[in-house]
Known about the structure:
The protein is an all-alpha fold. The protein has helices at about 25-40, 40-70, 75-90.
Amino acid sequence: MHTLEPGGRIPMAKVATKVAVSIPDDLYRAIEKIRKIRGKSRSAVMQEALRHWLHDQAQVALVREYEAGYRRRPESQREVKAAEAAAVRLLSGDDW
């Protein structure tokens, strides 16, 4: 059961959160120039930037996981030799 808001309205689910951030003036001007050319709102630009940042952070985490796994179990000498032999076979037919 919903508690009514003033005026008898039913509260709606919150679909967005407002965030206030401070950025240097030169960065603001650069963003404004490009966003106006592309016809995007400030919110759309910030959402896109934050999605890219989150994607980048996920990629960094994957690389760290890979590196940690490699440190736990590095390639054996046998695996290195097999990879080298495969590379020689694959690349020997190419004109360099």
